[in-house]
Design brief:
By secondary structure, the protein is an alpha+beta fold. It has helices at 20-27, 31-39, 61-70, and strands at 17-18, 46-48, 56-60. It has a domain at 17-70: Multidrug-efflux Transporter Regulator, Chain: A, Domain 2, CATH 1.10.1660. It is built from three helices and three strands. It has a three-stranded antiparallel β-sheet with strand order 1-3-2. Helix 1 packs across helix 2.
Length: 88
């Protein structure tokens, strides 16, 4: 009987899932921030293998990119800094 093996790479047309460490490296932040964002449910993720510390978190690269784009602060076209407060 011949055993069937799953393909080694990501499914065709789909990007591989990222671990929190890989996601942190891609976003330029710490892994602990990625864990916090997942715990607060601000970053979409998969929890594989159960709840708590025994589970594994996986993050779609596209979801991470979308989240990072949503955090982007745009320039104020008018140049109005009236809402900024300076501490002296």
């Amino acid at each position: 009987m011949e055993s069937k093996r799953l393909p080694a790479g990501p499914a065709e047309g789909r990007e591989a899932k990222l671990t929190p460490k890989q996601a942190a490296e891609r976003a330029g932040v710490s892994p602990s921030l990625i864990y916090l964002l997942c715990a607060e449910r601000r970053l979409k993720h998969y929890r594989v293998g159960g709840q708590g510390r025994r589970g594994k978190l996986l993050i779609d690269a596209e979801d991470l990119d979308r989240f990072m784009e949503s955090c982007r602060v745009e320039d104020d076209a008018a140049g109005d800094d009236s809402d900024l407060r300076f501490i002296r």
